[in-house]
Every structure is written in structure tokens, then in C-alpha cells.
Amino acid sequence: MPLSTVVSSPGKVLLTGGYLVLDPAYSGTVISASSRFYTIVQDDTTVSSGNIRVRSPQFNDATWNFVVDIDSENILDPESNNATKNKFVQLALEKTIRLAVELKEKTIIQEVLSRGIDIAIVGDNDFYSQRATLASLSISRTLESLKMIKPFNKSGITLSDVHKTGLGSSAALITSLVSALLVHFSVLPKSAFSEDAENNHDAKMDVLGKALAHNLAQYVHCLAQGKVGSGFDVSAAVFGTHLYTRFDPAVLQLLMDDSTVCFI
After folding, report:
1. Beta-strand relationship, 242-245 and 27-43
2. Tens digits of per-residue pLDDT, 225-252?
3. Which of 20, 116, 191, 207 could, after both became Cys, cross-link 47 (CB 3.0–4.6 A)?
4. What is the maximal distance between C-alpha atoms in the chain?
5. Where along the chain do its domains lie?
6. Would you call 149 exposed, middle or buried from its count of C-beta atoms within 10 A (0-12, 13-18, 19+)?
7. Quick one: how far is CA 261 from the chain centroid?
8. Are 11 and 127 in contact (CB under 8 A)?
């Protein structure tokens, strides 16, 4: 039976703190939302051996194919026939594979890649404006009307044209993607992302595993955005609701300056 891995990550709302969360001297209250991003990673015989296909079925022109060669310096190359580019997805794939190769035997990663990988990424409707859909259905813009829209609504537009609602879609996407890949490559156990991770028999290892996913997601998110941000959106996507204190931006600066380095 083909191996399949599913990991979801929530959006966020910063309840208190405002711009003060940019200063590690202050803390803010970040709330994880009920809306989530889901990443489904599975073996797929329709994908060529050593290749990865990523799909975002809610949008037009949102399929990206990549060729992976873990012995190459580039490690990951997008296929020339991709209709669009997605820096967030590409960096998440590249950095996660580099980390997996560092932490696991290369032969294990090669064996997983040899089966061909298909990745589907979807987000709950609340991450995106649904005005156009409501208008097409000729219904009023109310909370009750939003419940009438099918889950994972197809927008009919490209990602570059979508209007976001500010729930931290890019952070939730990257967190769910890197976490699902870490599990799929057997770098982390599934238990690291269970709701009861802290009470499992390997609780310490699970907590460390979740911290690893957090650190990787923070790095990829910063790299994709081109700056070290506040980080509370990724933190909420990994740890849920909590009192957030920003990490020292200097811990990521070396990695930001050298994008080829592997992050551990």
C-alpha cells in the first residue's frame, strides 16, 4: 500500500502585543485559529522516480513539478514546463530534503524519492476572501452564508491574484508542508504532531521533534520572505495558542546570508 502522510497546521490571531512582539523584551498572546492548512504527501506511481509533484487544487496553474538529485549541489530543480513559480513551496522542499539527508541515511531518502511523491496542499476557506464566490451564488456576505460554501473552495484564479484575510496562510502552509515531509521521510515520528505528544512515552523526543519542525519552518518562512520576521505566525502554526516571545533574529542571520547551508 502506498505510504501516505497528512499533517495540518493552524492559522493565527495576535491577541495582544502588536508591534512590540518584534522586540524579544516583550511578549504577545497568539491564538491559533480553527482554520488550518493541510498537506497530504503520498507515494504516486504516476510521478516519475526521483520527482516530486506539488498541487494546490484551489487555484489555477498551481501544479509544480520538481526533479530531485540529492547528490547534486542544487538538490532540487523545478521543471521548465511549470506554468508558475512558487518560492515558498520550492524552498520548503529543498531545505527539508537537505535536512533529511543530514539526519537520515542517504539511502533511506533515496528510497522514498524513488517511489515518486505527490503532494497536495489545501487551506480552509477562511484564509481567503470569499466575496467573489458569495457574489456568484447571489447570497449575502454574512457568517451564515460563508458556511454554505464548500470546504476548500476552488477560487478560479491564480495564487498571485488571491486576496488573503491575514490568518497567516504562508506560515501555516510552510509549517504543514515541512512537517509532513519530515514525517514522510521518517525524520520525525507521527507522534511528534499528535495532540497528546507531551504525554506520549517518548514525550521528550516528540517535543524535540516538534521544536525541530518549528525551527525549520521559521527558517524557510524567513528565507521565502527575504527577512527575519516576528515569527509568531509560525510559532502558532506549530505550538498553537501560547504566550510568544520572539527569538533573537541573529540566530537566523548566518543562514539567511548563506542560503546553501543545511539547517539543523
Report:
1. antiparallel
2. 999 999 999 999 999 999 999 999 999 9
3. 116
4. 56
5. 4-257
6. middle
7. 20
8. yes
Burial of 262 (0-12, 13-18, 19+ CB in 10 A): middle
| SS3 annotation, 2-30 | CCEEEEEEEEEEEEECHHHHHCCCCEEEE
pLDDT in tens, 47-65: 999 999 999 999 999 999 9
Whole-angstrom distance, CA of residue 203 vs CA of residue 201: 5
CA 78 → CA 22, 63, 69, 70, 84, distances in Å?
34, 11, 12, 14, 10
Distance CA 17, CA 244 (A): 9
CA 108 to chain CA centroid, nearest Å: 23
How confident is residue 263, by pLDDT bands cut at 50, 70 and 90? very low
N-to-C CA span, the chain = 32
Q: Which amino acid is located at 69 in the chain?
A: D
Q: Which residues contact 44 (CB under 8 A, 6 or more apart)?
A: 2, 53, 115, 116, 117, 118
Helix (H, G, I), strand (E, B) or coil at 143: helix
Residue predicted with more confidence, 255 or 79: 79
Instruction: Read off the pLDDT of residues 5-47 as tens digits, 9 standing for 90 and up.
Output: 999 999 999 999 988 999 999 999 999 999 999 999 999 999 9
CATH number for domain 4-257, candidates 3.30.230.10, 3.40.50.2000, 3.40.50.300, 1.10.10.10: 3.30.230.10
